[in-house]
Design brief:
Layout: E1 2-9, H1 19-31, E2 36-41, H2 49-59, E3 63-70, H3 77-93, E4 98-101, H4 109-120
Parallel strand pairs: 1-2, 1-3, 3-4
Length: about 120
């Protein structure tokens, strides 16, 4: 089984906004060089999630599973509706592949504890 991990951020027209996400991607690749990591955006900039999946499969047809990591602090319309629609389309286009949507990072106590440390210091 070959797994691809896709970090999914919101997106912005400001290219500088992307820097922390690109740094996170590079850290993931450096710390886990045997794993596949990519970055995608929901809107306002590229690459989009469906484009990343397509490109990954062109370059590695052995990928069986896509773990999507939404880099959002909470679930809202984007997570509950927009991303679900994209996943529906991906599953229809690639029925032999598995698409897992992880919880938003804001639901992880490591993240909320780190935020607390920043705002309380």
């Amino acid at each position: 089984m070959t797994i691809a991990n896709i970090l999914l951020a919101h997106g912005s027209r400001d290219p500088g906004w992307r820097n922390p996400f690109e740094e996170l991607l590079e850290k993931c690749k450096k710390e886990s060089p045997k794993k596949i990591y990519c970055l995608s955006y929901l809107e306002l900039c590229d690459p989009k999630l469906s484009d990343v999946v397509k490109d990954l499969l062109v370059n590695n047809h052995k990928i069986t599973t896509f773990n999507i990591h939404p880099l959002f602090l909470s679930s809202g319309v984007h997570v509950n509706d927009d991303i679900q629609k994209i996943l529906y389309d991906l599953r229809a286009n690639y029925p032999e592949k598995i698409f897992n949507l992880n919880e938003v990072i804001g639901n992880n106590s490591l993240v909320t504890n780190a935020i607390y440390k920043v705002v309380s210091s």
